[in-house]
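Sharing a chain and its predicted structure for anyone who wants a worked example. Both blocks are below, sequence first, tokens second.
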Amino acid sequence: MELLAPAGDFESFLAAIHNGADAVYVGGQSFSARQSAKNFDDDALKRAVEYAHLHKRKVLVTVNTLIDEREFGPCLDYLFKLQEMGADAVIVQDSGLIQAITRELPGLHLHGSTQMSAHGADDLQFWQRRGIERMVVARECSQEELALMRERCPQMELEVFVHGALCFSYSGQCLFSSLVGGRSGNRGRCAQPCRLAYTLWRDGRPVDLPGRYLLSPADLCLMERLPVLKELGVAALKIEGRMKRPEYVAAVTAAYRQAIDSIDAGGEFPAAARESLNEVFNRGFTAAHFAPGTGAVLSIMRPNHRGVLVGRAISQRPDGETAVKLSRELNAGDGLTAWVKSGRSPGATAVNIKRDGAVVDTAWAGETVSLWFDGRVGAGDRVFRTYNQPLMTRAQESFSGDIKLPVDAQAVLRAGQPLELIFSDREGHTARAHSDLPVEVAKQQALSEPVLREKLQRLGQTPFELKALRVDMEGELMLPFSELNEVRRQAAELLKQQILTERKPRPRMKADDAVECDIPALPDCAAPELRVSWGDAAGVAALLEAGADKVYLHLNGLGSRAPARRELKEIIAQGWGVRVIPLLPSLHEDSCTRPYREAAELFTQVMVGRWGDIEWAKAAMEQVNADYTLNTFNRLALRRLLGEGVYNVCLSPELNIKQLEGLKDYAPACEVMVHGPLTLMRSRGCVLRDTLEAGQRPCRRPCRGGDYALRDEKGYNFPLRFDADCHCYLLNSRHLNLIAELPELWAMGYRRYRLEGAGCSADELCAVLRVYRRAVDALSAKQAYPAEALTKELAKLHPEGYTKGHCFRGVI
């Protein structure tokens, strides 16, 4: 199994390589999903690729953001540079970019980012036939689901996160930071609103909970489950952390290297390595969705590093001197935090550890010491170490300086002939260089073997270190030192280039069953359509009567209950089968046994929200619609879906009005989100299960017993909704409302307008539909558009106000 470590800068890259990473993933200055990291400019990337390849390691470069229309030229230029540098693969998210790469740079190796939300074998099969060789599967996948993926798609390599921060939402499906803070996770700028404090509300009243960080997951740690991952045939084990310090990268990489090597050798599990993970950073550890039912995923007490317990406070003097009874060793330089009952957690640095009045460098478990905290600490408060000085010192030392490759040299000197210098490494590579000037008979000071060694071992600016030297010299000979230096430089460079040429990745081979897509003629869509998503079969009739042209019916009952098969048949019997389109869940793990596809096949059309459903839908249905969860953000992504045979595409809600104008040539095949509470997060985790149910299984389904929401510290309420498969959805606190912008969209040629209904009552949604029906009818009749009247009417439904979403702001 490949150990894949993160690096946000070159120092972290060295920390990863020096501590046993087989490969390192990095990001450039643009198109990377961690824009807040230092990242790598072109020179640093080239240096990293060379260093890695010289040491038989790999570099994977993240190009895993959604790409704007204007960025394709610069992005492809950048990718060409990466290919020329010898980057081993690029990690991508954007479906349009994947299409561009397979056509323009077909030899570049492609790995699918976790931002693609791949969580089923069908997802893997779809992308394997379209150029992806390895998929970073969603962190929500369980052990059993990974086994099914390996069984059903053995050609695809699986890359699995084993350590680090988790997102509450499926990656690539989160709009929280984007819509609330204007910083899109799909563009690498996530502001992490999931790490903020919230209060749970039920039926309009706050619920008393011990913690406030209700969307903040604990950190993933699968070290104990590495044997299972090995048995599953996982190709790569991935450590999260491009935003972390080099010391973190060093310590975590070293711990997993030790664990992997121990497993491969049949040895015992390295408990010390596991313990070091607690010290370097943890929010509490969890196996999360890999091992469902093994504990809560959320860590609601605090969203940052909790450290390890080192003791309890006994007493504190007014000047902050605090007596602490230790439960484990404490070292000078350690950083500490006291967990107090209320207020800010005081901190301390163990600069002067006093034991029995004397300052010591180390104190041991069972001893009482005096430390100085910067705030009030009460008797009995727990004291945690958040910075382990000896561990951090060892980590820093591990990546100071470069690792040199041993080489042996042979120098052949003959009077009247050029010096021949031969460098050989331990891998069988050999380079020969010759001096420009011939060797001469010495007139004064002749060359000696010690002098030759002293000159030839000056390899400081090269990746090599001279070990054995063999000198083949006949007679008293001499050569200018400048010639010796130059021939040494040439030999080292020739050997370096020989190694790099051999280890440059070979071009990607096209899959035997690769799929090529042609763009069909665009549909004629002169008549406007109001399309509304809804979760309850009982409300369909009312929505159609209120003016909906199409109703997307959530088969998983999002926000309501899953429609029964008899209800679906009744809809068809009523003659509504053409106007009602079943909406397949965007989250549908392989372990799910609900027959969603069979239910959809009662109809002639379907709306799909995940890549793995497209090929089935093309074969089974007359008409296929693609939901906005596929992140259609640019022309090439749109053309890909149309080329796959999709009839209608709901565009990304992260597009602004100018970007929509740039796509207007495809408007007849597009649907634009104009109204409703957008889903900010789609999660396999559940706020209620991890708080009210304390993570226990089976869950007693408290979601059925009330109307829940999260309230932030500014007083905004974010509704929580649930589906039949126990996924949790966080909705925006403000409904999208583009009623005033409808004429502009109309002028661009957009005629399909999407209204979200998951967070609404049937009566409210019907009222909204009637307003939009009047708006569309006015535009169709070319009448004066009553924007002010329509806006006021909608304002009555939500006096707290609406949002324009990204209509004018965007995420670029």
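Comments welcome. The chain has a mean pLDDT of 95.
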